[in-house]
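Run log, item B.
One chain of 240 residues. Sequence copied directly from the ordering sheet:
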Amino acid sequence: MRFEPLLLLDYWDILLLGAWLTVRITFMAFVFGYIFGIAVALLAMAPSRIARAVAGSYVEVLRNIPFIIILFLVYYGLPFSGLRLPAMFAGTLALSLFVSAYYAEIVRAAILALPRGQFESARAIGMSPAQAMRHVVGPQVLRTVIPPSTNMTLTMMKESAVLSSITVPELTYQSLVVQGNTFAPFEVFAAVTLIYWLIAAIIAEASRRLEKRVGLAQQENVARNKIADRYLSLERRPAR
C-alpha cells in the first residue's frame, strides 16, 4: 500500500464543508453553553438552598454522563415528548448542555476566587449590583476564565465528532463519506487530523489574543469608573 494524498483532491470541498459546519456548531455550542453556564453558576451561589441544590444536581449529572449518552437522550428522547428537532439542532443543543456544566464550574470558581470584599466595596461606594458586576467583578473574572474555557472549548470541538452518529454532516461524517468513496482511510483521516488541528490552533490563538487584550484593557482602565473616580477624588482632597 502507498500513501496517496492526491486521491483527496476531488473531495477537498466536501471536507471543507464538514469543517465549516464543525466550526459553526462549536461556535453555537460555545455561545449557548456559556449562557446556560453563567445562569447555573449564579444559581449555584444563590442564597436559596433549593437553588443551589438544583444547580449542583445539574452540574453533577451532566459531568458524570458520557456525551454520547446526552446526545442520544436529546435526539431520541425529545420526540417522546412531542418535540422532534433536526439532527444538527439536536446535536448543538446536546453539546451546549454538555459543555454548560463545565463552563458553570469555571465561572463559579472564578467568582469565588475573588476577594470577598470586592463586591461589597463596590456597593459601598454607591455602585448598583449590576455596576459592581460589570465594572469590578466582571473584568477580573473574564481574564481568569479565558484559559480554562479555552481548554473546555477545544474538548467540546473534538466531541462534536460524535454528532456524526446522528448523521450531522460535520467533518468526521464527511470524512467517512470520502473514505467510502476512495477506500483510502489513512489518507482521509490524516487529512481530517490536520484540519482538526488547524481549527484547534485557531481557537487557541484567538484565546491568547483575547487574554492579552483583556489584560491590557484592565491596565488602561484602572479606576476609570465615574462613580469610583468621584470617590477617589474625594479621598485625594487635603484635609482641612
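Observations after the first pass:
- The longest helix spans residues 185-220.
- The two ends are 91 Å apart (CA to CA).
Flagged for discussion on Thursday.
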